[in-house]
Amino acid sequence: MYGVDGRKFQRQYKQSISNFKDWEQKSHAEDWILYPENLSEQLSLDEVALSDGELYSVLTSKKAKGKKGSLVAVIKGTKSNIIAEYILKISRRSRMRVKEITLDMAGSMKLIAKRCFPKAIQVIDRFHVQKLAIEALQDIRVSHRWEAIEQENNLLLEAKQKKENLQIEIFLNGDTRKQLLARSRYLLYKTREKWTPSQKQRAKILFSEYPDLEKAYNLSDGLRKIYNQNIEKPVAMLKLAHWFKDVEESGFKSFNTLTRTIILNYDGILNYFNARSTNAAAESFNAKIKNFRLQLRGVRDKSFFLFRLSKLFA
């Protein structure tokens, strides 16, 4: 439109207009960048893939709410000793002011938080716990689906051998058994109140055919309801104890594994009920990084990408 070649403008922006050459963190940007001035009392720690699945640990401030001043640190990798080494470059006085840090259940993240911010309360993100519960539920659904596929294959083979037409069972909503289990995936993610009329009909058929799926859904939904209630920590402990008992009685292997995971991260999970803090800010920030990466059609020069990222969010 203005007679300017796009690639030439991009090159000029990078080499002169943007001041990228004079960026004080350029020499080590691919390994780490720090903005200690953005440190606040509440932080989020998470990981994100910049390119080719290569992970970077990202420390963000909740005070800035995903805008300018959010970015505290971006460090290559997820090894606790390496990440901590760079975060410890921030003055001890500043780090001691941090009161709370939200993170997932990764052991490396907890070690980083403990070493770098010893006075901060660690809060395990509720959505990571709920995600595991949903995955435990979906694991049961998927196992039933494989059984249904195998059953249909056997019927098809038998019909071919007998040279007869295959009669496949079709439910009231028009689904075959295999389709019923495949199409139930999304309704199991939601609460009953959010089901559409067709999903209610499908769920009714699904639970009548597979009572164990209904029991597993109730367990997953029960954990969600504990988180959704505005309750204090002691009450949450009691409700979780009852939920553990229900899981034990159910006999589901995947849910028993989830129970052990919750017990191993018990303090961090219960800390959520102090101020109901989540890692949503970090997940939102990660989504912004991915969106920015998508607009640039990938990351060729990591240093320049992080420079532009810091201009927007640091």
Key structural traits:
single chain; 314 residues; alpha/beta; 56% helix; 11% strand
The gist of it:
The chain has helices spanning 6-17, 80-87, 92-95, 107-116, 126-162, 177-183, 197-209, 211-228, 233-250, 253-264, 266-270, 272-275, 280-295, 302-313, and strands at residues 32-34, 42-51, 54-61, 71-76, 100-103, 121-124. By secondary structure, the protein is α/β, with parallel strands linked by helices.
Architecture overview:
The structure is a single chain. By secondary structure, the chain is an alpha/beta fold. Helices cover 56% and strands 11% of the residues. The protein is built from 14 helices and 6 strands. It has helices at 6-17, 80-87, 92-95, 107-116, 126-162, 177-183, 197-209, 211-228, 233-250, 253-264, 266-270, 272-275, 280-295, 302-313; strands at residues 32-34, 42-51, 54-61, 71-76, 100-103, 121-124. The chain has a 6-stranded mixed β-sheet with strand order 1-4-3-2-5-6, with helices on both faces. Strand 2 (42-51) and strand 3 (54-61) form a beta hairpin. The protein is globular, with a radius of gyration of 25 Å. The model has no long low-confidence stretch (mean pLDDT 88).
Task: Please describe the biggest sheet, giving its number of strands, its sense, and whether it closes into a barrel.
Answer: 6 strands, mixed
The quaternary organization reads as single chain
By DSSP, the count of extended strands is 6
**What general form does the structure show?**
globular
